Amino acid sequence: MSKIALIFNPNARKGRGGKKFLSEVKSVMDGQGEIIVTESVKDIPKAISRLKNVDFDVLGLYGGDGTAFHTLTSYINQDGYHPIPKVLLLRGGTMNVVLAYFKNGTGPAEMFKILLEKARKGEPFETVPVNLLRVNDYYGFTVGLAMPAKLVSAYQEGGDIGINKSFRITARLIASSIVEGEYSRRLFAPVPARLWVEGKEAPLKSFSAILASTINNVGFGFHPFYRAEEKPGCFHLLATDEKPGRIVRNIRSLRKAEAVKNLSLLDEVASCVRVELPEPGKVMMEGEFFEAREVEIRTGPRINLVVG
Questions:
Q1: Is the pTM above the cut of 0.70?
Q2: pLDDT tens by residue, 158-167
């Protein structure tokens, strides 16, 4: 019988809904796994170490994309690529881009109960294989530099985050881009950098946006990575030096997973990309940030996400 090890982030969405979820899960767990509560990111490595003594088949994560980022990074850096258990992402955070991509809108407690019942009956879980990105020593699904990092920072400012704010931020950026306003100029301000794709240097010497992903969703209603699953063991890279006005003219393609035309754009499927900045800059993965001057993006391990 399958067992689930659940890492629970009580601070996801500022704790809203977490206590109720935990109470419901504990009431039905009945020896089918382990629950580990992490009060902060610093607790995650200890939680991963503790799991070494736990018998489980599925690693459940209650939180958002950031919880997945920190947990997968810690797990892989401690134990390497093999074996990586099936991963269950439970909708508990403020950013749930990965779950949205797989069109999984089931509530966290309901999903957990469904899987426990399947395990008791010996029924197989429905899984979807997906590659992670390895960015330096971090693991996730999407990475962004320049505009993407600035946009997520703007979204997180003030702490009032959610779908309504994401719509407001997106609408403001589009409106500002149309008139080349200060807001869009600030977010799209070019960053000097050198970029190599599979060892070949790109002709562009500054970038307003650099993005790479293994899934076709970046949140804010955009699906630009239409080639994310084109070639096994690779990811989709998009990088440009364009001004916001020209980019916003292609907004339909960016939202509808179509090729973008009439732009100065690197649109590549790759397994290795290297970015070199003149000084340490902000790198965004799953809504979390770190700083680096040299950024190496590689295809990471393939994992199986439990979706039902």
A1: yes
A2: 666 667 777 7
